[in-house]
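Predict the holo structure. Ligand: NAP.
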Amino acid sequence: MTISVDGSDNEKYEGRENHTSSNADENHFDVVIIGSGPAGYTASIYTSRAKLKTIVISGSLPGGQLMTTTEVENYPGFPHGIDGPELMTFMQQQSERFGTAMLIDEVTRVDFKSRPFRIFTGSSSYTSDSVLISTGATPRKLGIESEQEFSGKGLSYCATCDGPFFKNQDIVVVGGGDTALEEATFLTKFGKTVKVVHRRDNLRASKILQERAFENPKIEFIWNSSIVNVKGDKKVSAVVVRDLNTTEEKNLEAGGVFVAIGHEPNTSIFKGQVDLDERGYVKVQNGTRTNIDGVFAAGDVHDFKYRQAITAAGFGCMAALDIEKWLSEKRTN
Ligand code: NAP
């Protein structure tokens, strides 16, 4: 049964007959999942199917990073590719089929020090025996005006996802870290040329990735420079690069721009509630467990290495199995 919750006080969670929660409070759940990317939706499919009363609090824009992707070609099961938003709608529908409640709202505060855990949105609060943090990460933006306009139209934040769309084109990569060089090297498989624009004359990336990039005849570096504008008619055709020493600007023809200047995990509401690493990623141990018993994490919010839809979905599945086991152990003890 489909359940949709809009956050209003008198909304009812239909379909709860599917679930076995012993707590009669309407706003109490076995599992609260915060975040609605592939990790959160996958976890909810598993926990709802296991008859745990589950709610996904999706944020104000459900679906996560894939909502800004056009075609996804590397998610298994779709031999001809699938639009990112369509894939996320399918995941949501699959989860609702098993009785997951969906709430389009932002979590503003959590309290993991009390039991049951408490989760607050702008207008309501919820309690839960377990929580999954799957709020993902946000790619750092260049912060220029044309960025939003060309996002998904030649400007991308993920070479693995979008590289194959740029066969025989001139490509620009922005950044000087491991991701930028790894992506630049990967993009040489497709692009005619790859120009790496970096704001300094020194790379942050590891030596081995630097050597590999320097040796690659398709890669050229543009040092001490930043991108100040992206141009094109409907899709990217050029970028304007500014030399940061001379302030001179020049036009570079490019069919694609890959921004690889890092990610920010979406964890500000969890500060002081679970252990985060120095960059703000949730620390996990033994699979998907955080340092708080009963609070789990899955996807880009803890995984800064793989960051793929399919790996996030995999972590979501792992988290759901960890949660099921944890709840069942707690309830039999
Ligand atoms: P990162 O290490 O934070 O590097 C970001 C790069 O973007 C830096 O070169 C930085 O310049 C530049 N940058 C940041 N903000 C910018 C802005 N506003 N405009 C222009 N340039 C900007 O991020 P990452 O490369 O995504 O790597 C993240 C973590 O994952 C790192 O720990 C990395 O080692 C790891 N990682 C490892 C591998 C691997 O081992 N194969 C692959 C990918 C990532 P500055 O250098 O001037 O600060």
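The two ends are 32 Å apart (CA to CA). Residues 28-138+263-332 form a domain with the FAD/NAD(P)-binding domain fold (CATH 3.50.50.60).
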